[in-house]
């Protein structure tokens, strides 16, 4: 089974080679080092928390969201994991614009993803 951080590294390497990188002021690798904290390894825990601490522009939030997407892909590739997400604000609220709270939202955006082993599995 792939480790979660390997999955994220692969995803970020892939996105680094796309045109999106040219339009982003903060590189994905820098974003991961600055904003993402992973508690691993998965095999030794019943739960893994990913805490993406976002502290910048909407563009930087989108980059953080890429890491979140990589985690979702990890779960799809490893059946037996379950998760729930807790967003302080909806991504649509942030991207929609015109929200009086958008400044507050973009200054602090935690995303928590928790993995839990299902009973009766070896995951």
Automatic annotation (TrEMBL):
Q: What keywords are assigned to this protein?
A: Methyltransferase, Transferase
Q: Which GO terms describe its molecular function?
A: methyltransferase activity
UniProt protein name: Uncharacterized protein
Q: Which PANTHER family match?
A: METHYLTRANSF_11 DOMAIN-CONTAINING PROTEIN, METHYLTRANSFERASE TYPE 11 DOMAIN-CONTAINING PROTEIN
Q: Which GO terms describe its biological process?
A: methylation
| Family matches, as InterPro entries | Diverse_substrate_MTase
Q: Which organism is it from?
A: Strongylocentrotus purpuratus (Purple sea urchin)
């Amino acid at each position: 089974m792939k480790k979660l951080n390997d999955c994220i590294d692969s995803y970020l390497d892939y996105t680094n080679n796309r045109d999106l990188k040219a339009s982003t002021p903060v590189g994905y690798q820098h974003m991961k080092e600055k904003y993402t904290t992973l508690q691993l390894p998965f095999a030794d825990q019943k739960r893994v928390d990913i805490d993406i601490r976002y502290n910048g522009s909407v563009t930087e939030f989108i980059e953080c969201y890429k890491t979140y997407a990589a985690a979702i892909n990890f779960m799809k590739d490893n059946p037996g994991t379950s998760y729930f997400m807790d967003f302080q604000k909806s991504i649509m609220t942030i991207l929609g614009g015109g929200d009086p709270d958008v400044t507050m939202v973009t200054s602090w955006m935690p995303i928590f993803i928790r993995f839990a082993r299902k009973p009766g599995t070896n995951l």
